[in-house]
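User: Some background: our group keeps a shared notebook of sequences we're curious about, and every so often someone picks one and asks for a predicted structure to add to the entry. Today it's my turn. The entry only has the sequence so far, pasted here. Could you supply the structure so I can complete it?
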Amino acid sequence: MRQHPEHYSSLAKFGSGLVSTTQERWGAGVYFNPYVIQNGVQIKYGVTSIDNLCTDLSSWNNLYLAGRLQKPVKILRDHPRVRLANQANLISAVRTALLLLPPQFTENELYSTIAGLSYLGDPRMALPTESPSKVTDIVTHNMTSFRKLYGPLLATLPNVDFTATTPDNADPDANAKLSQDMDPTKRANMGRSLRRTRYTEADSDEDKLSDDEFEAKLADEIADDHVKESSPELTPEEADFKRIVDAAKLEISRKKLGNPLMQLRLVANSPHNFFNPWGLENGPEIDERIVTASGKMLLLDRLLPALLKRGHKVLIFSQFKTQLDILHDYCTFRKLKICRIDGSVSQAERQEHIDAFNSDPDFKVFLLSTRAGGQGINLTAADTVILFDSDWNPRYISLIRSLK
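Assistant: Of course. Here's the predicted structure to add to the notebook entry:
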């Protein structure tokens, strides 16, 4: 507002604080400046707070801001929080569109479905002033930009494939055909991982319970479930879901709360450290939730492919074995060949993993426990180290630095 006062109407006299607060509380959450000339081109840009933008990107509270960023736009002020939140927003947009599309579809149909999400139920679309081909025009005129925005995401989804050669990013007329796996279990997992929006959560009585009372309540629920587990009314899908929920309750009830700080460090890495459904026997297939449930995993999912594409060999350290299990599952999901050393690996196996990583170009990622992998190791092939969670003992950090 101070940089470009000519872009604003007489509302600018009330000050930026009042204008932004009014927009966030009672308006659309963003102040738009339309019909602005920049470098000889007429543009339209919006101004909002980072907190408000990230909230809508992460939770789809009203889908107004999130819907804007599901289309190719330029973010004038780059911020890491916005990048992470928008990564989750784009993944959710792709999943939602796939649930609305048939087994076979085209790029144009996919991007049109995504671009139309934020207009579903919008009363303005029924007005005569709105073009009926608005969504189609957005996609047709920006096909190359849509492809750059969503192409990398589509390449990582295991249930979506291009039926022909992946199109050239620079060819706006290309309209590749895609297919998706319509397996009911995979589609149900995709639906469960979407944002829960447009409802208000009621206060839970469980929030008022002490830790001991909460654990006792979990134990009672587990006992009740065991009584009912032989019910013949459950379908195979319901029985499978019930088995996973029971395992989650049991694992959480066993968690010791003697060291809350350690529990906070675990949950900051990934909530799946408290319950990992993919570690169960006959558990569900690994899906995108292994990434989207954690900010650290979202960042790693952006960083690691870029490093590997440039030919780097990467060491990833974690202090927690459960986090290494999650990283192992993630690498399997992304079809990466890895080596791994933790406290359970014998000396002979350690050397086999070290030799394979140093000599085989296909092994580009090495997962290591901070304690088990910080000494007695020669990984000369590695040129990049990622500390997924930093050990608070400086002695172990110095050992890791010695690997350089």
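Suggested note for the entry: Residues 31 and 354 are 56 Å apart (CA to CA). The longest strand covers residues 31-38.
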